[in-house]
Amino acid sequence: MDEPTKVLFNGECPVCSTEIGHYARYAGKNGLPIRFDDLNTAARDGWGIDADQAARRLYVAHNGAVLSGMPAFRVLWAQMPRYRILARVTGWPIVRPFTVLAYDHILAPLIYRWHIRRQRRSK
Predict the structure, then answer these.
(1) Strands 5-9 and 34-38, sheet pairing
(2) Is 108 within 8 Å of 69 (Cβ atoms)?
(3) Among candidates 117, 123, 121, 116, which has minimal Cα distance to 56?
């Protein structure tokens, strides 16, 4: 049997936990072989990624490869029937650079800065 697709996400991030929580519920309801690991738990140890690096973007392990950012989202979406079209469209050569730009240079850094601010406030 194939290994399940694994997702590493920040469960302390309101944006991340809401989005990934939605995917986890969908995967659970549909019996999809996807495992969701919160980087703030011991589950992160199996990834070989430190907490700060893991908080900067989404990571997905699939078929022996670990991907991050938009490629990770595309792999995750491709595993879920409802989101396969989103995986395909965001992978089109004309669309892909814009999705990478939006996630890697705008959304992920913004969400990471929110994460750092939340951490500082909680100390």
Answers:
(1) parallel
(2) yes
(3) 116
